[in-house]
Sequence to fold (558 residues):
Amino acid sequence: MLHRCLSQDADTIAPVSDQANTATDEQLAAQAARGDHSAQAELVRRFQQPVLSLCFHLVGSQHAEDLAQDALLRVVTKIETFSGESAVGTWIYRVTTNICLSHLRRSRRSPVRGSIDAETSPQIEEHNEGSSVQMNEGLPAVRRALDELSGDQRAILVLRDVRGLEYEQLTEVLDIPIGTVRSRLFRARKNLAAALERIESNDSNPPSKTEP
Amino acid sequence: MSILDTLTTDQESLVIDAIEGELRPEYEPMLKQLLATNPGLDVEIARLTQTRSQMRALEVTIEPNAGFVPQVMARLEEATAPLQLRHMDAPVRSHRSWIPASAARPLAAAAAVLIIAALGFSFFGDGSNNTTTTPGPLADNSPDDLPIAPHDFIPQTPEAIAVAQAEAESRSFEAAERVWTEVAEAEPTLAEAVELLAAGRLVIRGLAPQPDIARAGAASIAQGLDSQSNAWAFVNPLNRASMARFEPQLTDSPVFAVDEPTGLRVQLPQPRTVSAWSAEIAIDAPALASIVHNLRELGLRVRFEAIETPFASQPDLESAIWWDESPESWRSTSMAPVIIDALDRP
Fold:
C-alpha cells in the first residue's frame, strides 16, 4: 500500500545497476548507507513519486517539489541513522512529513509563504516546466477543506486516506501512540466534514456581486 | 453542538474504528448499543464515512521533473563534499592560515591553565607530596619541540605512570571541552544573542564530546527536531562555502598537555564540524532559549557566538514581500547558522 505509486514509476526509471534496481528497500538502504552512489540514486528514484505526492497534499504544488527534494536529500545523507525498526518507506514518510510540517509552521509566521488555498485549491490541473500535476475533477471542495485543517490533522488524513498507511504505520510516521492516532483521526475527520459542509454551502450560495 | 462532540474517548475510538473499517468483531455490539442510545449518531458516522471516500478518491498523479533525481544527487554531492574533503585533508592541512599566530598563542596559554587544573590535580591528589610546583608545560608547538619531562619530574612509582596513563585520555577530553568552549572570547548573554540574531550576526554552536553524539544530533535535526516548535526551524544544511566560514578556530599546531611527574604527553582533541544548518528563529529570548534547550538535549554543549559579517544580512525576495504584510500577521524571524562540532580524537 505504501509504495503503490512505485509500479507507475517503473517505466520512467533510468537504467541503474541491476543490483540496485532489484534490491529490496532495506537492501538498498544498507547499500546507500555504505556510500553506494548507485543505491543512493535508486533510493531517490524509487521514492520520488510517493514523496512528491505526499508533499503536494501537505503543502501544495508551489513548494512540493522543493520539499520533496529536501526530504530525499535528508534521507540519503542520513540513511546511516535508519535503524531498521520500521520499513524504509515508513521512515522516509516520517522525514518527509516532518519537513512539510516544519514548512507549514514557518509559513504560518510569514503569510506570503502560507496560503495553501491560494496555491492549490482553484486549479484542477497545473503544468510547470518539467512536471505536471493533475487532480481528479469534481473534488476541489474536499481539497480546499483539507487545506483548512491544521498541519497535523492534514498530515494524518493524507497519510491514511491518500497514501494508505495503516494505524501502526501512522504511529511510526507521526511518532504518536495508537490512541492518539485514533483521537487525531476522529478530530480531523470531524473538522474536515465541517469545513467541507461550509465550502459546499458557500459554493452553492455564492455571495452576490455588488453593483457598481 | 454536534453529537460527535459529546462522545467519550472510548466512544470516539469505537466510532473512528467503524469509519476506518478497523472495528474488531467483538466491539460491534458496543457500537450498536452506542448507536441505539445516541439518535443521530448514525447520520454523523455516514457523513464522516462519505468524506473519507472523497479523500480516498483524491488521486493525484505527479510526474516529477525529469531532472529531479540528478538535482537531488547534485545537492547530495555538494552537501557531503566538505566533510569528505576536510576528513582527507586534516592530517596534512596547515592550520596556520586559519587563525593568526597572535590569536593562537593566548588560546594555548589559556588552555594550559585549564589542562593543568584537570590533569595535574587529578594525578597528584591534593598535590602536597610533590617537590615541584612549577606548572606543567603545555605547548602549541610540535611534539618534537616539547621537552620530555625533566629527570626530576619522573615519578618514583610505576603505579603513578599507570594511573596517569589510564586517566589521561578521559581527563584530556574533559579539559579540552572546557578549553574549546570557555577560552574563546566571552559568550554573548541571551539578551545580547537576541540582538545579534536580529542583526543576522548570531552563530549557535554546539559541541559534542564525541563524533557519534554529534552525528546522532545531526540526524535528529535532519529527522525533524524542529517539528514541535513554532518558534524556530532548521531550514537547510549549509553548503560548502558557508560551512567553511564557521569552522572551529584551531591552533596552528596540535595542542599537548604534559603531566609533570610522569612526563606523559597527551595531545588534546580538537573540535571539528560535523554538521551545519541554517535555522530560522523568532527574534525573541524564549525562541532562542528553546532551540538551545533542544540542542542541549542532544548532548551538546551550546554557546552563542557573534560574527562580524551578517549571516543573511540582505532579505531575500520572499522576505521583502513578507515585510510588506501587516506586522500583526507575522512573527519576526531571522536566520542563524547552527554549527555542530565534535571533539575529534587525535
